[in-house]
Please model this.
Amino acid sequence: MTVYVDQFPGTGWGRWSGGGHLLTSDLAALHELAGRIGLRRAWFQDQTFPHYDLTASKRTLALAAGVVPIEYGQFPDDLLVRGRDGTYERHATRRAPRAACPTQQQHRSMHALWRQAGVTDRADRLALAGAAVGRTLATSNDLSEAEADALIAYMRRLHRDGRLATTAIAFLTRPRPPEAPAREVHA
Model:
């Protein structure tokens, strides 16, 4: 089983600049290696793909421990990814081919605009992006390139008009309807 490490592209990632993701085809191997290089299990992230975020120094330790370096955004066939049903599957065996997702440049543009709006929480970014495209997003890679272009253009218009941060805050602090109470099911 293989443990991989990618590298965040460019600069502007703050303390994560020069770092990357520790990825895997085997969760036990991932956690064992993470422990060896000093990562806490609490730092494990289990959203779209199981991984740990690495600073540049931790990435260097991972490489010295023998992980396989890959390009940012590269997904080897044996890499574990979370399917839409929440279970793990190999990247190569995904049930449905995905539409083209946003490019690295589109991701950088979206993140730069989110930073300008003061939106740092991943869930908030996904909620805002999902509202803009009219559907729920599990990850920004659920956007198509065309949707990402439209979202970036919309955010740039708001930024140019000085309304990006206020629009984001208004959306995130809007009153939400109360959830319907759970109904009892009688057999």
About this structure: The mean pLDDT is 81. The first strand starts at residue 3 and ends at 5. Residues 48 and 96 are 15 Å apart (CA to CA).
